[in-house]
From TrEMBL:
Gene Ontology CC: one annotated term: membrane
Record-given protein name: Apical endosomal glycoprotein
Transmembrane segments: 1152-1173
Disulphide bridges, residue numbers: C230-C242, C237-C255, C430-C445
A Pfam family matched in the record: MAM
All residue ranges annotated as the MAM domain in the record: 65-223, 277-380, 446-603, 613-769, 771-971, 973-1140
Ranges for region Disordered: 1212-1236, 1256-1287
Compositionally biased tracts (Polar residues): 1215-1226
Keywords per UniProt: Disulfide bond, Membrane, Transmembrane, Transmembrane helix
Amino acid sequence: MASCRPCSHLAVILPAAWSPGRAWFPGHCRSPSEAMCNFVCDCSDCSDEAQCGHHGASPVPGTPFTCDFEQDACGWQDISTSGYSWLRDRAGAVLEGPGPRSDHTLGTDLGWYMAVGLHRGKEASTAALRSPALREAAPTCELRLWYHAASGDVAELRLELTHRKETLTLWKSAGPWGPSWQELVVTTGRIQGDFQVTFSATRNATHRGAVAVDDVGFWGCGLPAPQASCPLGHHHCQNQACIEPHQLCDGEDNCGDGSDEDPLACSTFLVSVAKSGTPAVLSSPEFQASGSHNCSLVFYYYLHGSEAGCLQLLLQMQGSSAPQDPVLLRRRRGQLGAAWVRDRIDIRSAHPFRILLAGETGPGGVVGLDDLILSDRCRVSPEWSALQSLPPGPWAQALQPQLSSLRPWEVCEQGQLPCGDLCVPPEQLCDFQEQCPEGEDEQGCGTTDFEAATAGGWEDASVGRLQWQRVAAQEGRGPGRDAGGAAAGHFLSLQRAWGQLRAEARALTPTLGPSGPNCEFHMAYYFHSHPQGFLALLVLEGNSRELVWQAPSSSTEGWTVDKVLLGAHHRPFRLELVSLVDWDSPGQQGAGVDNVTMRDCSPTATTEKDREVSCNFERDTCGWHMGHFTDAHWRRIQSHGPGYDHTTGQGFFMLLDPTDPPARGHGAHLLTGPQTPATPKECLSFWYYLYGPQIGTLRLIMRRDREENTLLWSRSGTHGNRWHQAWATLHHQLEPGTRFQLLFEGLRDGYHGTMGLDDVAVRPGPCWAPRHCSFEDSACGFSTGGQGLWRRQASASGPVRWGPRTDHTTETAQGYYMVVDTSPDTLPQGHVAFLTSEEHRPLAQPTCLSFWYHLSLHNPGEELWEGLGLHAGQVSRRPCADLGRCVDLSLLLLTWAGPGVAGTLRVHVDEGRRRQVFSVGGHGGLTWRLGSVDVQAGQAWRVVFEALAAGVDHSYIALDDLSLQDGPCPRPGSCDFESGLCGWSHLAWPGLGRYSWDWSGGDTPSRYPLPTVDHTLGTEAGHFAFFETGVLGPGGQVAWLRSEPLPATGASCLRFWYHMGFPEHFYKGELRVLLSSAQGQLAVWGEGGRLRHQWLEVQVEVASAEEFQIVFEATLGGQPALGPIALDDVEYQAGQHCQQPASSQGDSTASVTVPAMIGGALLFLMLLVLLGLGGRHWLQKKGGCPFWSGEGAAAAGFDNILFNAVGPPGVREPSSASGLTGSRAGSSGGQERAPPVPACSALCWPCLSQWPSPGSSLLPRMESPSQHLPPAARRPSQTGYPQTLAPGWTHSITRHLAPPQAGPGCGDSEDRASTALLSSDCPLVPSGCLPHE
C-alpha cells in the first residue's frame, strides 16, 4: 500500500458555529439594498448588479461575475493617498516602460486594464484599488484575477478582504514575478453581509512600481434563489432556497440563513492521537457495522505551502480476534491552495470499524482538518469509551513506507529510492532516464494502463463537484470497456465528487523532467458533453499553466487515440488532465482516459530526424520543434487564403500569428535539438515573412553550452507582403563535445500581422554578404582592417562618445550603427579608415546600393546643447510626451554653421580593383542622410567605405542601414514601389501607436483589403504602398511614411497617385501631406476617404527655406472603418513648378470640362455671398459680434491648409513651421474640396482679411523672443485652429495674392504681400466662430 512519509504536525481546528443570515424574496425589479451587488441577478436585465462588475443580461447559472475593464472600471476605485495611484489604462497609450505590452483579455495593446501610474517618489508608497461594496458571498465563492508586476520596482503585492470592521489578508507576495500576466486564485468562502476586496501594490523607494490588474472575476459567489417548491429529494431551507441533500450538515451555510447546519441535527466527535516519529493520526471512535446502509463522513481539509504535504483517509475493520490492516480510501497530496476543501466518504461495512485520518507536511507546509461531520447511520459501538486510546495493531506499520529488503533503511537517506546497490536521489526520479536496473525510478511517472492500483502516479487534485478516479470499465460512464477492449479492465474516469470549489476535475502526474524536444504524450480518451464541457491536457511549469491539447469536440461512444508533442521542458514540470462536463444533464455525459504513454522524452535521446536542420516543412517540421516556455507558439500550416508558403505557394510553412490563439507570452520559440558542427563555417539561409501594420520582431539566435546566446540576425516591423531571403554565417569551434542549437524567436511586440518561416537550408562555408544590414545584431561580416577604427556601437553604450545620438534603424539611443572617430588623436588629418564588406554575389542586373550616413558637426559636444539650453540626454528622435523634458528631433533638424569640415566619406566597388562611385564631405548635422549609387558587377565584388579625416576635434563619420535593391536608384523623394519603399521610412513610432505603412501587390494574397491593380503598371503584378486604417481603432492614432531629408527649395512639385476604398456611409479615412522641418510641420494637402476604387492624381507645390521631409500621414476621422489608403508613383520634381496635367482618355479620374468648372465655381461664390449677407443681417439684429463694424471687409476664405505639431500622443495641436510654404496646385478631375470658412469670418475678426484666400500660398511662423524652439505649451483647439499663443510669441501669416479690402485697423490694401502680427493675447479665432466642415 502506498503511503506518505511521517509528518511533523497536524493542525486541527474546531468547527465554527453558524449564525442565521438575512434573505430577500425577489419581487419587482426595484431591488432593496440588501439585494444589490449580491452576485444574483434579481432583475431580468441584471441592472441590480451593473455597478458591481456585471454588464448585460442575466447570466446563465454558474457564470462568473467578471470585469475586463474594456468598458469602464466596473465600480473599482483608487483609494491611494499619494501620487502612486491606480488608473484605467492600456498598453497602446504607454510609450515605453516596464508595464505590460498587452492586456490579458484581448492579448493586444488595444485592450484595457487597471494599472498603477508610473510615478516616481523619494520614499516607498502604496497604491490601493478597492472593489465596490459586495454582499452575501456563497461558500463556493472564489476570486480570480490576473496581475502583471515588474520585479525590482515593486516591494509587495497584497489582496485583502474587509468585512465589517475587520480586514483579513487573503494573499500577499514579495515576488519575484515573471515577465508575463500571472493568475491569482483565492477562495473567500461564505461571507455574511457587506464586504469589499482591496488589491494593493507597494513600490520600492525611487522606483516607478509598474503593476497592472485585469480580468477580475467572482466565481460561484451567488447564494441559491428562493423557490416556491424544490426538486424531489432536495432540502427546502427556511428562507425558501433549495439545496441538494449532500449539502445538509456539511459545515457550510449553503442555504444562506444557516438552516441547513442546525447544531441539533449535526453532531461531530473524534479522538486525536499523534506520536513522535510517526504520521499524525486522527482516529474516530469504533462504529457499529453499517450493514446495508452508508455511514457518511463529511470533512474539510487544508493542504497548502508544500508539494510534499499529504493527507490519507483509511478504514480499519475489526476482525474476529484483532484489527485488520487499514485500507486506503482516499489520499490527497501536494498543494491545493489556501482554501478549505470539502470531501465526503461513504462507508458500508459488515464489521465494526474505525476511520483513520493521517497527515504529513513538507517544509513550510500545513495540513489542516476541520468540521468532521458523521451521518446518523454512523453509530458508536456501545462498549466504546471516549477515554480509550487507539488499540495496538498493525495500522502504524501500515502507514510507514514499505522499504525494499535489498537495502537496509539506514543506507539510503530519506527521500531517496533504494534499488539494487543504488540510492536514487529525488531529482533523478521521473527524469526519463533509467537509473535502476529494473527501471523502478521511472515507474509511476505517468505512463500507465490504469490496471495497477497506483494508477501510474496520477493523483486526483480536484476541489469541486467532479473528480478523476480509477474505476472498473463497467462501473464508469462511457464505453463499458477499457481502451484495450477488456470489460474487466480499468481506466481513469470522471466521477461525481463532494468538493465545493472549482467545478472542473484535475489529475496530476508526479514531478517530471527534464524532457527532450521529441517528447510525446500518447493516450486513448472518450469525451461526451453537451452543450458545454471540455477535456484538456496542460503543462504546469513554475507559475505557468500551458494548454497543449484539448479534445476537439464530443467524441463518438468509443475510444479515440491521439498524441501531442510536449517538447522540451525544464524540471520540475507536471502534466495535468482537466475536464468539465454537465454531469446532471441527460445522456452519458462523461470523460475517460486510458493507455497513457510518454515516448522519446529523454533529453539525451536523438534520432536521425533531429539532425535535419534544412527543411521546407512540406512533410513535417524536420529537426525543428516548438518551444513550450511561453503560451505563444509557431504552427505548421498549409497555404490557404492570404497565407501562402514560399516553396510552392500551395504547400506548408511555419506561421506565428501573435493573436491566434490568444496568447500572453512575450514570444514564441522554434528551435533545433543540439547539433554537432561539421565545419568551422556554415551558411544558414531561410525565407521569412513579416507583414502587417503592427507586427513584431523576428530573431535568429545561436545557443551554446555554458555560453551566452549569440544574436545572429533580426528584423522588426513590416517588410511588405512578400517572402524575403536572409542569410547568416554560423561560426563554430571544432572542439570535442561542442554542441549548439539554433532558435528562431518571434517577439510579440506587435499585434496586427503575421510572421512566417520557410525553406531553411544549411550548406558548408560562409554566406555571401547580406543584401540588407542594419547592424542591430552584428557587423554583417564587415572587416575594419588592421587598425580596427570602425566600430559597431549604440549611442547609449558606445566607445565613441560624440557619435550620433541615435541610430537610423530604430531612431533610439539603443540602436546600433558603424562609426569611425576622425579626431586628430585617433585618425590624423589626411589619414583614412576602411570598412570592407564580405563578398557579394555577382549581379545579374543593375542594382541600387543605398546607405544612410551621418557626418559630425564641427564641434557637437556639450557646447551645442548648452547653447540651446538643453542637456544631451534630453534629445530624442521620437515624439516627446513631455515637451518640458525633451526635444523632438523631428522638430529640431538643425545644421551647424561652424567653421571647418567633419571629413569625407567615399564609397568604392572592388571587383579585383577598386573604383570610386560616391563621395560626400563638408558639414554635418543632427540628421541621417541617404546615399545611393547604381552598381553593376559581373563577378564577386565588395563594397568599401573610406573615411578621410579632416583633422577636426570630436568629429566622426557613421553608417547605418545598408541595402541592395534590384533596379536603378530612384531620384530623392521619388518611388514607384516596384522593388520596395525606396528611401521612404515607415518606422513605427510608439507615440503614434506603433503602426506602419506597408507594401504589397494586387495579385499577392493579403489578409487586408487592397487595390486590385497598381498605377505604375496598371496590372495585378504591380506594387504600391498602403495602410489599412481599420487597425487603428478609436483614438485618432496615425501612421507616417517619411521621405529622406530633402534640401531647401524655392519651388518644387510633389506628384503622386492615391487610392481609397471605404464604405460610402463612413468617410472615415484621411490622407494628408505634411512638410516637416526644424520648426514644425505644415499640412499642405488633405483628402478624406471615399468609395473610389480608382487611382487619383495629386500635385502639390512645395517650398521650404530649409531642409525638410515630406510626410504622408494616414489616419481616421472617427470610428474605425475597414478600408485601405494606397500610394503609388510618388515623384518629387526638385526646382520645378507643378503643371496642371492634361486630361486624357487613359486617366483613372473622370475628366471635368472647363465650362463646368467655371459654372461650379460661380455657383459656389454666389452661395458664399448669400450666406455672408444672411449671417450679417442676423448678427445685426442680434448684436452678437463684439468686433463687428458696418464697414467690415468682405470675408476671405481659408485655404485647405491645416496646422499640426508633434505633441503628446492623442493631442492634435495646431502649430507653425518656419520657412515652409505650400498649396494645393491641382487635382485631376477637379476633385478639390471647398475650403473651410469661419462662420463669422470678418464680422468677428477685423484682421481676418489678412488670411489667404483659396489657392494662395501661406507662410506661418512662430517667433520666440529668445530661441527658435517649439512653444512650451499651447491649448488645443476643437476647431483645428490656434486659440491663443504662449506669452511672448507672435504669429506671422504672409500671403502672396492681392489682398481683399482691408478691415479696420488692418493696415493698407496695396497689391503686395501683407502681414498680420497678432500678439500673445489676441485670439486667433474669436469665441463663437467655428469653421464649416
